[in-house]
Q: What sequence folds into this?
């Protein structure tokens, strides 16, 4: 009889997930939230330049498509959409980071070196966020 009782085994409990795996899950959620929010916000800049939404370029004016602002608006609209959708995130983010560095150099740097004084904080912040997306792999091991 004692042999019968010994043969019955209770299943071993499954180990709880390590705290580090939970932290990575929260980090992944934060990464996706930042990517989607940044993409959608960046799209509004393209909508503003191309379609005159949100005040346009002053009094609802739009940029001609063949101009620098028109090309920038197209990059902002399409790039923001792709970024928000999570499509081609790293190459798109690299292109958008370059666009923001160029925008800073053309529109803000001539007014002074310090971003706070030349109004270039948003352009530099976008550039840094896009660079983060471009350099951060989507999957973590």
A:
């Amino acid at each position: 009889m004692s042999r019968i009782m010994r043969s019955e085994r209770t299943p071993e409990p499954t180990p709880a997930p390590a705290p580090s795996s939970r932290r990575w899950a929260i980090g992944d959620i934060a990464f996706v939230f930042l990517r989607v929010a940044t993409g959608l916000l960046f799209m509004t800049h393209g909508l503003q330049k191309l379609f005159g939404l949100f005040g346009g370029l002053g009094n609802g004016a739009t940029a001609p498509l063949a101009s620098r602002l028109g090309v920038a608006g197209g990059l902002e609209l399409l790039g923001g959409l792709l970024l928000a959708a999570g499509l081609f995130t790293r190459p798109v983010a690299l292109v958008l980071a370059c666009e923001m560095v160029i925008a800073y150099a053309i529109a803000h740097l001539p007014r002074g070196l310090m971003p706070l004084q030349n109004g270039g904080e948003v352009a530099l912040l976008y550039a840094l966020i896009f660079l983060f997306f471009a350099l951060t792999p989507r999957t973590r091991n």
